[in-house]
Amino acid sequence: MIPIFAPVFKERERDLLLECIDTGWISSQGRFIPYFEEQFAAWNGMRYGVATSSCTTALHLVLVSLGIGPGDEVLCPDLTFIAPANMIRLAGLKPVFVDVEEPGWGLNPEHLEHKVNPRTRAVMVVHPLGHAADMDPIMELAREHGLKVIEDVAEAPGAEYKGRRVGTFGDASCYSFFANKIMTTGEGGIILTNDPELNEWLRIYRDHGMSRKERYVPIAAGFNYRMTNMQAAVGVAQMERLDEILQVRARQAEVYKGVFADNPRAVWRPVAEWCRPVHWMATITLRDASLRLRDPLLAHMREKGIDCRQMVYPVHMAEPYKEVNDPEEFPVSTSVSLRSLHLPSSLGLKPEEIKYIAETALEWLDRHDN
């Protein structure tokens, strides 16, 4: 079976992990954590990095540290993984979903403006599947209404919007190092910010609300959202070849695009003119806006030894949120979700494997998409 994704490690990761084991620094203290935070922040041109146990906990940590009050509303995209909505709710806030735009599938700025009201306090901007959201109108809207901006860059480290790195626009940005992400620490995340006060509160809340000046003196009701030194060690090794990883992914995407070029049945994801994407998960969109083709194609690919996945469902369709949302407000996110699927995207995929994957999908569509 060709997996949807498989991480690739080198001897460097092994060596740094063994250093943690040999020295005994295996938990949330050790030299690799601050070094990894500094290196990742510098790579993105930001002042502070706060490593966390996951991107999900990073999102929650930012919401709490920004001091947004209970009952306030946070705008977020409808077409994304459910974690942002869940963390907004966990922080005692109300997630308000906004439809996405094409191309790119990021927040639709026009729809965003219609959702702002006196209770709105923040916008959570997701940069989906390696593509930047349209940041200029989003930031203009945020400035006009005094809204905080949180960027979810879990799937897009290194992507650029009009020549500027995503994750550098808002008050804070959150990244994921889950096993299938562009770089990985197994589990893990990080928050970037240029705000020294926010950086301080992020570190306090991350470590049980403990004072940074007096040992074991709690000054807030915090959490254990810390990254381990072992995770950070893997992150350091991955960071050393992050640019190389992005280059390999770009070459793989070109192979995929070459096979799908000019084929009306399955369209490689288009890119907005203002975006320089990174390539996280290979994604195609079928012209048939129903499950008539997508699910049978997924089954066929698995029969051929190719593990493919459907795109995430719109959050408004999820059980915890569907009763408070009108499905007719989200036509783009619903259509894109039902028509799209992910193809294998492992860093170790060879060009001939990519061609086999893409051609297998197209051959089936040629027979069934009439």
Tell me the structural class.
Answer: alpha/beta
Mean pLDDT: 96
Fraction of residues in β-strands: 5-15%
* Major beta-sheet overview: 7 strands, mixed
By CATH, the superfamily of the largest domain comes out as Type I PLP-dependent aspartate aminotransferase-like (Major domain)
Distinct helical segment count: 12
* Uncertain regions spanning at least 5 consecutive residues: none
Q: How many strand units?
A: 14
What is the total number of structural domains? 2
Tertiary shape: globular
Question: What is the second-level CATH architecture of the largest domain?
Answer: 3-Layer(aba) Sandwich
Oligomer: single chain
CATH topology of the largest domain: Aspartate Aminotransferase, domain 2
Distance between the termini: 29 Å
What does this entry look like structurally?
The protein is 39% helix and 15% strand. The chain contains twelve helices and 14 strands. Helix 2 runs parallel beside helix 8 and helix 3 packs parallel to helix 4. The protein starts with 10 loop residues before the first helix and ends with a helix.
Task: Describe the SSE topology.
Layout: H1 11-23, H2 32-43, E1 48-52, H3 55-65, E2 73-77, H4 83-90, E3 94-98, H5 109-115, E4 120-126, H6 135-145, E5 148-152, E6 160-161, E7 164-165, E8 172-176, E9 189-193, H7 196-206, H8 229-239, H9 242-260, E10 266-268, E11 275-276, E12 283-286, H10 291-303, E13 309-310, H11 331-339, E14 340-342, H12 351-368
Parallel strand pairs: 2-3, 2-4, 4-5, 5-8
Antiparallel strand pairs: 1-9, 6-7, 6-11, 8-9, 10-12, 12-14, 13-14
Helix pairs in contact: 1-8, 2-8, 3-4, 3-7, 9-12, 10-12
